[in-house]
Amino acid sequence: MASIDLNADLGEGDAYDEDLLQIVSSCNVACGGHAGDADSMTGTVRSAIANGVAVGAHPGYPDREGFGRRSGFMKGGELYDSLTTQVSELADIAAHLGARLTHVKPHGALYNDAIGDRELADIIARVTAEAPGSPAFVGMANTELEFAARDHGLAFIAEAFVDRAYEPDGTLVPRSEPGAVHEALSVATTQAVRLAEAGQATARNGEAVSVRADTLCIHGDTPGAAEKARAVRDVLESHGVDVRAHTMR
């Protein structure tokens, strides 16, 4: 039987977190960089535990004004220190509540920048390797994120997106371009099944493109996020795909 993880970025102040935690199998918790504070982290982790959802850290550029979406915001030792603080705080909160960090997934512009930037990817991987509980590293396959995970001996979880359009080379269509986000629910559910069963998506030019996927992301900050997540999970399970956290296989 095929299996796949279903993840969502939570603790960012959105209204759908509680609903999503009843649907997804893992969550990525904002830990004070682009969003989040001790109270939101505690509440999100506590609810994740209650719902049997794996808890991961979602560190980003410490850019609350830009919500971590401004490229190149910080580099080097300053970034390393910030990410270490973010991940450590969430790890401490999780441990206090009886959970451990199962993974680390960078947020927003940091994620996108590090896909092609070896130095950035190495910083994130180093922070992950030093975090308690031996968390895995989540990112896009065949990018600097995966190469950095390998260099640091980290388990790597390849991520794909059910509601984002792909280019023929397997990269995402930039959000600034028309059609970058799949608005139609039927398109998202169809893409989810193809990714889980065949490791493929349909590029915007109509070609089939290979996309390795161990986990599928549902964006929690869009209207109807919970309904979309429920539809994706239902269609996956109706096709015999087991939805569960990667670390629980």
CATH class: Alpha Beta
CATH superfamily: Glycoside hydrolase/deacetylase
Helix/strand-derived class? alpha/beta
Query: What's the mean pLDDT score?
Result: 94
Work out the radius of gyration. 17 Å
Unreliable stretches (pLDDT < 50, length at least 5) are none
Distance separating the two termini: 12 Å
Mind explaining what this structure looks like?
The protein is α/β, with parallel strands linked by helices. The protein has one domain (about 5-249): Glycoside hydrolase/deacetylase (TIM Barrel, Alpha-Beta Barrel), CATH 3.20.20. About 40% of the residues lie in helices and about 20% in strands. A seven-stranded parallel beta barrel has the order 1-2-3-4-5-6-9, surrounded by six helices. β2, α2 (about 40-50) and β3 (about 55-60) form a beta-alpha-beta unit. α4 (about 110-115) packs across α5 (about 120-130), α5 (about 120-130) packs across α6 and α7 (about 185-200) packs across α8 (about 225-240). It starts with a strand and ends in a 6-residue tail after the last strand. The model has no long low-confidence stretch (mean pLDDT about 95).
